[in-house]
Design goal:
Blueprint: E1 2-8, H1 12-23, E2 38-45, H2 51-56, E3 62-67, H3 72-82, E4 87-90, E5 96-97, H4 101-111, E6 117-126, E7 129-131, E8 160-162, H5 163-169, H6 180-191, E9 195-206, H7 212-215, H8 220-230, H9 237-260, H10 264-277
Length: 278
């Protein structure tokens, strides 16, 4: 069974398209498996925009769970606790799956049962227009821990996981207001190879003002926290050196940025941290 988890917060204008893209998967139509082999769970993270009415209009096809607003990590973790599937997939409520995504990923898991994490290429849309990702966003396949260090290359909306991944690694860090996917990606890539299906199966929409990347300046603050956590994962000496190098690089950027904004205490704090990892 596949459990699909959609966390959402005040995105009623996008949510219906996300849900429809899950229900429209050709896998459910019998081309790859029985229609009852999945569940769709929407975790409402305290929305005040009619989200409940939209989800309940789908009837029993969609499980709805409302919670007080605690952030996307808490919403995803709530979905994991409710999920019954052996396979887990997430879909951000502003993204859209292409109709063959589930079929191709499920077939891969069946063909290669040792696979634990499987992701795909994406189509990027910003403010309604298709854009090409930059070279730094290139995706890789296999043991990719070193590739995941500069920035988050794990798109949760494109990925599918075996449930045992979360049983071993735990869920998402609810103390991080952003970059929780980066933190999870580091833990994942340290433990497992992450396999890439070299085909775009997700439309990733961005540019709207409620994205977390717009809510916080200096996202590397949260990545530094995740990297410091990673040093406690029992890394190889090579990976430990790479993590320390990445922390130093991010601290250097953050110190300069805070200084430019007149936040000298914050700048000094990151200069001190930089000194620890040079």
């Amino acid at each position: 069974m596949l459990s699909v988890i959609i966390p959402t917060y005040n995105r009623v204008s996008f949510l219906k398209e996300a849900i429809d893209s899950v229900l429209a998967q050709d896998f459910w139509r019998g081309t790859g498996g029985p229609s009852g082999a999945f569940e769709l769970i929407v975790i409402d993270d305290g929305s005040e925009d009619g989200t409940k009415q939209v989800v309940e209009s789908y009837g029993p096809r969609v499980k709805y769970e409302a919670r007080p607003h605690r952030g996307v990590s808490a919403a995803r973790n709530a979905g994991l606790r409710s999920a019954r599937g052996e396979l887990i997939a997430f879909l951000d409520s502003d993204d859209i799956w292409l109709e063959d995504k589930v079929r191709l990923q499920m077939n891969y898991f069946e063909t290669f049962p040792e696979t634990m994490a499987l992701t795909t290429e994406e189509v990027w849309v910003r403010n309604g227009r298709r854009v090409n990702p930059m070279a730094k966003h290139r995706k890789y396949s296999g043991w990719v821990f070193d590739k995941f260090l500069p920035l988050c290359l794990l798109s949760l909306s494109a990925a599918m996981f075996r449930r045992s991944v979360f049983e071993e690694l735990g869920g998402f860090d609810e103390s991080l207001p952003a970059c929780e996917d980066y933190d999870f990606g580091l833990r994942l890539a340290h433990r497992y190879p992450v396999i890439l299906l070299d085909k775009p199966l997700l439309i990733k929409r961005g540019g709207h003002p409620d994205q977390l990347s717009h809510a916080f300046w200096g996202m590397d603050r949260f990545r530094v926290t995740a990297l410091q956590k990673a040093l406690g994962m029992g890394l190889t000496s090579e990976h430990e050196a790479l993590v320390k190098k990445e922390i130093a690089a991010k601290c250097r950027v953050l110190a300069a940025g805070f200084e430019k904004r007149g936040r000298r205490e914050d700048a000094e704090a990151y200069r001190k941290l930089l000194g620890q990892y040079l």
